[in-house]
Amino acid sequence: MQNKILVIDDNQDVIKALKLLFLLNDIDCDGATSPEQGLDMLNNQAYDLVIQDMNFTQDTTSGAEGQALYQAIRSLNPDLPIILLTAWANLETAVALIKDGAADYLEKPWREEKLLKSVTQLLEIYRLEKAQFQQQTQARNRANKLAEHYDLAGLIYADPAMLNLLEIATQVAHSDAPVLITGPNGAGKEKIAEVIVANSAYHSKAFIKVNAGALPADLIEAELFGVVGGAYTGATKSRIGRFEAADGGTLFLDEIGNLPLSGQQKLLRVLQTGEFEPVGSSQTKKVNVRVLSATNVNLTTAIAQGTFREDLYYRLNMIELKLPALMERPEDIIPLANHFIEDNKQLSSGAVNALKRHTWPGNVRELQNVIGRAQLLAKSDLIEATDLGLKTKPANSAANTELSAQDIQSALSSHRGNVTHAAKSLGLSRQAMYRRMDKFGIAR
Question: Which range has the worst mean pLDDT, 56-70, 87-101, 358-372?
Fold first, then answer.
């Protein structure tokens, strides 16, 4: 879609000159000769940028009319870029309006190259910001719809990566298909399993959780399938196994990638037939169990190494949900931190910045522990950065370090291309971020 500019200036020659300049550069341009006409046009049409004069009444040079027009435009559209144009240079006025958010301030007669460069850059920034706003609005609408139609089991999230995952999780929840949840330790795989169960046909039935990787090799059968009293030394009485306890409901097998091969073989049989025999019994039992599993192990690699059965992998992995690490969903960090805070305490701005800069190798579990520790150490209701005990490098800034192309790329990657968030993480303004992107040839 072609960009559209509105020029508000009482001099028709100025409007004509600018229309011609922008026409030659494939930019549509309208003109208004008074503040009233300009505001009326802004009320009735969509524009991507405004160039406005600062003085309209003859022999007026104070810039007061321009300031009033600027504020009126701001009230209509707070995000619309505005370039101030005047024949009467007034540094104090320029500084005040630039601080208030004006995009640029140029004197008449203008240099076409400089004006065109400013306009082109601002239009691109505005286009990106509008696209980001639209994406955020769409994400909010999707999140609201998800919350209205599904039980999210108290899960706290804000990041688009989690929204995508939850939409898939709730979609497959009503099926009987086995689901494999993959992701690093402490990222919240069990919570995703809870969401699936909460929205399944088994939500009111048994939900049995077992850490498959922690089961001793010689007790795997007894734990999963039960044992008859006297079957072996120490088995003084009969007890049912996890599969029988979950009959009619859901069994969640956590850390399935660490299950020994002997246990994998026995697990495969019950998944294929629904049948098993308790240890010490010749009686076959049959159960109807929906199986969810989770692992932090790369099972494809484990299969290649011979430590995980390929047939079991395909039996467990009809649907795979890949849970990102916390550092890959940075917008979840502060909402989760606030969720873990108790006793009416709050995070200081320094603590918020420290939490955002940390890489979270221990994921959500580490964040919960950090917040719990900070609450104990905080000397007031305000949790400071020092209370967190994080070994975090100070934020980069133009004042204390020379940023490299890799620094810029890493920040953009961490924030999935969101320039505003990436700039904040580096201690830069958005404009400074764009300048560095241009310097290193990084595409906007």
Answer: 87-101
Asked if residues 216 and 256 have their Cβ atoms less than 8 Å apart, the reply is no
Convert the pLDDT of each residue in 180-230 to its tens digit. Answer: 999 999 999 999 999 999 999 999 999 999 998 888 877 888 889 988 876
- 382: tokens are 């305000």
- Nearest partner of 183 among 261, 295, 303, 343, judged by Cα: 295
DSSP helix/strand/coil, 84: strand
pTM of the model: 0.71
| Torsion over CA: 212, 216, 220, 224 (sign) | negative
The topology under which CATH files domain 156-324 is: Rossmann fold (3.40.50)
pLDDT tens track for 362-383: 999 999 999 999 999 999 999 9
At the top level of CATH, the class of 327-388 is mainly alpha
Tell me the CA distances in angstroms from 420 to 72, 125, 127, 129, one per residue in order: 26, 11, 13, 9
Burial of 75 (0-12, 13-18, 19+ CB in 10 A): exposed
- Residue pair 48/79 in contact by the 8 Å Cβ criterion: no
Could you confirm whether domain 4-130 is CATH 3.40.50.2300? yes
**Separation of alpha carbons 39 and 283, rounded Å:** 85
Distance CA 90, CA 433 (A): 28
Which residue's entry shows tokens 């020092």?
386
Domain extents for the chain?
A: 4-130, 156-324, 327-388, 405-440
Cα–Cα distance, 404 to 39 (Å, whole number): 43
80 closest CA partner among 38, 18, 17, 137: 38
For the chain, give the number of residues.
Answer: 444
| CB neighbour list of residue 202: distance below 8 Å, 6 or more residues apart | 248, 249, 250, 290
Q: Which is it for strands 250-254 and 82-86: parallel, antiparallel or unpaired?
A: unpaired
